[in-house]
């Protein structure tokens, strides 16, 4: 079978998304005969359908593996709005999500959903980097490395000029340095 027991909500959702008729399935694994006889495009589509079904069931790790299988079978597989980037986004692995979403956007540059997800992921990456820099600055200040802390706080406020806490911490450290 391709995606799990026919009639499950996940199978119906995968069928609705991919536009295929329901497939009678006995298990979640791709059948060995399909592995041996199928073209890379067919195998990629089967793995994608499996991933969509698992995603609908909330099984992110298994969906990730299925989507990556689809990508391995056929790197040019068209995921549409459903691609490994979306799974990695849900798993909060933003750098990997950005990679797969960028690949999907290359295949479909006009896809607004993929473009929006990529934008969100990039914002999360930027926010995480700002938070890391802020924590590093605070650690430096707490350890008495005030000059280094000033450099880190300035980096934070350069990236996010609206961050009041970073401005306050920078002012505090500069005051301690008597500047």
Describe the structure concisely for a colleague.
The chain is mainly alpha-helical and 179 residues long.
Which descriptors would you attach to this protein?
mainly alpha; elongated; 179 residues
Task: Describe it.
This protein has 179 residues and is mostly helical. Helices cover 70% and strands 0% of the residues. The chain is built from nine helices and no strands. Helix 3 (40-56) runs antiparallel to helix 4 and helix 5 packs antiparallel against helix 6. The longest helix is centred in the last third of the chain and has 31 residues, at 112-142. The relative contact order is 0.08.
Structural topology:
Elements: H1 9-18, H2 32-37, H3 40-56, H4 60-73, H5 84-90, H6 94-107, H7 112-142, H8 146-159, H9 164-176
Q: SSE order, as H and E?
A: HHHHHHHHH
Main sheet properties? none
Number of strands: 0
| Distance N to C terminus | 70 Å
Helical region count? 9
Beta-strand proportion: under 5%
């Amino acid at each position: 079978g391709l995606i799990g027991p026919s009639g499950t909500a996940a199978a119906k959702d995968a069928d609705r998304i991919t536009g295929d008729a329901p497939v009678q399935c006995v298990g979640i694994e791709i059948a060995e005969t399909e592995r041996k006889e199928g073209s890379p495009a067919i195998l990629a589509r089967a793995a994608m359908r499996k991933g969509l079904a698992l995603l609908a069931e909330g099984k992110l790790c298994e969906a990730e593996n299925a989507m990556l299988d689809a990508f391995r079978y056929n790197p040019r597989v068209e995921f549409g709005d459903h691609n490994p980037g979306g799974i990695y986004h849900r798993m909060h692995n933003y750098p990997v999500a950005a990679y797969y979403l960028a690949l999907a956007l290359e295949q479909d540059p006009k896809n607004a959903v993929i473009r929006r997800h990529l934008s969100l992921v990039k914002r999360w990456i930027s926010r995480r980097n700002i938070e890391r820099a802020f924590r590093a600055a605070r650690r430096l200040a707490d350890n008495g490395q005030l000059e280094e802390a000033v450099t880190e706080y300035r980096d934070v406020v350069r990236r996010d000029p609206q961050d009041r806490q970073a401005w306050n911490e920078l002012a505090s450290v500069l005051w301690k340095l008597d500047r």
